[in-house]
Fold each of these.
Amino acid sequence: MNNEELDSQLSAMFDDELPAPQCELLARRLARDDALKARWGRYAAIGAVVRTERGLRLDGHLASRVSTAIASEPALLAGSAARATGQRKGPLRGWSQPVAGAAVAAGVAAVAILMLRAASPDLPLIAQAAPPPAAPLAAPVASADARPDSYVVPPQGESSSFTPPVELADFVVAHSEFSMPLLRSSALSALVAAESSSDSADAPGDAGKSDDPNAGTSHAARSR
Amino acid sequence: MRLGRASERLTWIALALAVTAVASADEPQKWLERMNQALTTLNYDGVFLHSQGGRVETLRIIHRVQGGVVTERLVSLDGSGREFIRSGTTLTCYLPDERKVLVEQQPAQSLLLGSLPSFGPSASQFYDIRAVRHTRLIGKKTQLIVVTPKDEYRYGYRLWIDQATGMPLKTQLCDRRGNVIEQVVFASIATPDRIPDTAFQPDMATDGFQWVRQLPMSTPAATTAASSVSRWSALELPPGFHMSVRAVQIMPGTTGLVEHLVYTDGIASVSVFVESHMHADHTLSGSEQVGSTSTFATMVDGHPVTVVGEVPAETVRFIANSVQERPSARH
């Protein structure tokens, strides 16, 4: 993907016009690519400036920090203004700095959240740790490592390959970080159960799933 | 004159009673604070029974705080021999029955043995908390604290707290009628000054085991920060519940981003997961019970919605059925 395409994807993402699978792909790429992260930061800013019309409000401290950062990057302001006037009717000239800053901060904050989520370097959610390389590895783990940057939807997403309890275990474990179970290993045991059954469910024929038809259909099904 | 003196005496008695009442209203909260303090700051080594859903398991817990680093080891003493060892934020799960080791990152404050959130004033609107009586357990004097829910949307607790150390020697999660849903009871416990490093070594050889690293799935995030990318909320909630965390995350087993909303009444928490991808149907549907955790899965406008919490089944269903795309987020 060249920079122009990336730019347009980033821009679409921040205008909330990019389909979810592509958002996810971008998020994963961003987690690994510092140059792209910088671009993302800029697009967050631009998108947020465009959204100023929708009346975003933000924490003043963060806003002032961000507006200082933005002010020190005149090219960005010029670019966003040009883009904004090009896309939307009505002049965006003459925004007062604090307002623009606040809106920008909203975008940056949102990005921070996504970055937080996508911070793992390789997003297959289960990857092999150091020892022992020769172990008989579960198929999804191996294919996850080998997955190229351009993959669209993770094979794990093919929900039909999971029995319900496995999916439930992921939710129970994700929830347990916010709850106070009497014994944390109860949630962890659910995870263990999930590990075992996902192995048995996925082990045969996992390689065939990389050309996943799900990508296209789910895209088409989105209500946009 | 006599009458005057009598009424004066009555006034004093009334006043004294009032003072006692105020003091004892504070007392149970103090016990809970003391318990949480003990669970997080003491060194302890104990064997306990954990029962849930008709199953009983014997486990050993070792907890050490040394130089600001918390190290914990939880060992199943029945059959499976599973061990969970946490050092700082890294949790390693040894599963000899599966010949696997799972390594994952956890928030630093996640104790293996659960505590209770601090009992704030809002919680007292929905729970009644009392210091009930003194009793003896495994030769130690304990104070029994009972936390009773005031309606059917949440569970209660009974805690037997060691008067000497503040450790909960017995903990029960109960429904509103007092039926025990989950229980932890210590058979023995010690609070040594020092615990050697060797106590945190797994009791097994891991040669030939498969090592699997589970990457972090979620981290708490500020409500305002995610609000510009989030689109969903529960429009109606059981009394006392409010949103505490809103985040967008990537989760295993799902396609696309998942919006994660956490609602709490100050004690109990409920997570709502809304998948951004539209599906023809949800692979999950209706109520399930995972130990003391209730879940409810449904579809809302083509999006799979899963609600999870240590609350009665009715509560997760109530919340799941009120999940809607926020009007401002609609296109």
Amino acid sequence: MTAKITYADVEVGTELSAQTFPVTRATLVRYAGASGDFNPIHWNEKFAKEVGLPDVIAHGMFTMAEAIRVVTDWVGDPGAVVEYGVRFTKPVVVPNDDQGALIEVSGKVAAKLDDNAVRVDLTATSGGQKVLGMSRAVVRLA
Amino acid sequence: MALDQSFVGRTYPPTAAYEVGREKIREFAEAVGETNPVYTDPEAAKAYGHPDVIAPPTFVFSITFRAAAQVVEDPQLGLDYSRVVHGDQKFAYNRPVRAGDRLSVTSTIEGIKSLAGNDILDIRGEVYDEAGEHVVTAWTKLVARAAEEA
């Protein structure tokens, strides 16, 4: 495993490049097929509203997959990720229009650990709401 | 109704092997908008020291969640799946999942809690390759929301 960032180069507080990930209904249909999660709350507005949701929502695992890209794009080798965990705090609501929703993700180094590993804390928001909580990744740097 | 606490610690039999294919990884990577060639180009993966293309970090959830279905659908446990939402998710990797892996999952119920009428179920999935080596552990917290007052 070879990360392009070295442990010596980072310190607590180092910020990773923030990214914005667009998500439309088409994105969700595609993710449903690729992941095998066909829960209708992710593509059927009528069903979503019947179970008390404001509209169709993104798969939590889709948001989780997007958020870690801030870390993997930073280190280069996704194999450098040792741990990754999130709490799904609020759904990403995806309206049926051309724009859909945006997931905005930022991250910074929160701790330097043993064995060249660092902990990165991620923040993910959509529509001004925090959609992930306790979103943390441990990555091994070069 | 609260779930039976005696299910805590219960381990379900290992699942039949899931064979990870290069094209399935590509499909997943494209679905999440990934452009890193380590997911699609074996040469790019080798440059990082991987024997074949690797899967994005959350890819393995498709496999562990299928395995967790044994727990979720266990009639003796009696979880109301129509009320379930995904609470937390965590992975600890020994190595990345890669094309050619034949992965089997052993699911264990780590915890059952009842909080304000919600049932909270913690499931741990241990993922092993064909050689019996540990690849990744997935922890999934499911929350079955309390039924609305009639």
